[in-house]
Design a protein that fits this description.
six-stranded mixed beta sheet
């Protein structure tokens, strides 16, 4: 069992697998206890494209070194140019990578001809479904995305890095995707909790949360933050980090005196704001 403490290098999938109370579950309880019970009994809900888009932006901004280990642009499945010729020994099929045959009939040659392929493959397949299966095997472990999705994440990240207040923190000695585990005592029970901060600077004692949004102005984002309880999420994480630090016996506590959001719009030109919460 994982003990209370701060864990800087836990991959996201391992963090999600930790069976501890997190903000998402707590927020469900606050919003609707019956939904929280349903989630507990039957698992999580549908992962929407906006949620996946936010994950891509997080990786591009906070874990850019892991981008190429996580995402690949999905190649198009295309048809190859094939030609069939009857020779004394039988029917032959010529394709860009060579010639196969002989076959007794042209139909037999067509049935096995490598008609479908894609960039990155060293062969072809007679059916598009076969090529699709092969693609899944070749890119196993990667998330396949479109060129537009790739460019959107890169352009969003560039906008964040071009925003001075945000960049000054992100390019400082900041821990990103920082995992921590702590114990809360509630009603005489000890409950293990977990959190994962987008960014934390021990020097500046600031914790940040990166959010994609429709409106990054102070007024527009504040309304969204209040509705989605972003401020409560950051407060939960700040409390958790400080408790994890103390409960793990850190000689110098990890303190949080500032909470802030990097809000970036999800449409061009990806306007970005750095919004700090009042103490």
């Amino acid at each position: 069992m994982m003990r209370p403490g701060i864990y800087p290098n836990i991959p996201d999938h391992k963090y999600r697998a930790l069976p501890f109370l997190n903000w998402s579950r707590l927020k469900l309880v606050l919003d609707c206890p019956s939904k929280a019970k349903h989630y507990s009994d039957y698992g999580g809900g549908f992962v929407s494209e906006p949620m996946r888009r936010g994950t891509r932006v997080h990786t591009a901004v906070l874990e850019s070194s892991k981008w190429n280990q996580t995402y690949k642009i999905k190649p198009d499945i295309t048809k190859q140019e094939l030609s069939f010729e009857k020779k004394p020994e039988g029917w032959m099929c010529a394709h860009p990578r060579g010639v196969i045959g002989p076959f007794k009939t042209k139909r037999e040659a067509q049935d096995v001809a490598p008609l479908y392929t894609f960039d990155g493959a060293d062969q072809g397949w007679p059916k598009a479904a076969d090529a699709k299966t092969a693609m899944a095997d070749i890119y196993d472990g990667f998330k396949l995305i479109t060129r537009d999705q790739h460019d959107h994440a890169m352009d969003t990240a560039q906008a964040v890095f071009s925003h001075k207040a945000s960049a000054d923190l992100l390019f400082s000695k900041m821990n990103t995707e920082l995992t921590f585990v702590w114990v809360e005592e509630i009603g005489g029970h000890e409950i293990l909790c977990k959190g994962r901060a987008d960014g934390y600077s021990r020097t500046a004692k600031v914790m940040i949360d990166l959010k994609t949004c429709k409106d990054s102005t102070l007024w527009g984002f504040s309304k969204d933050a209040f509705y989605r309880k972003y401020h409560a999420q950051l407060a939960f994480y700040a409390r958790g980090l400080e408790k994890a630090s103390k409960q793990s016996g850190e000689l110098v506590p990890w303190q949080v005196s500032r909470l802030a959001f990097i809000a970036v719009e999800h449409e061009p030109p990806f306007a970005t704001s750095f919004i700090e919460l009042d103490p």
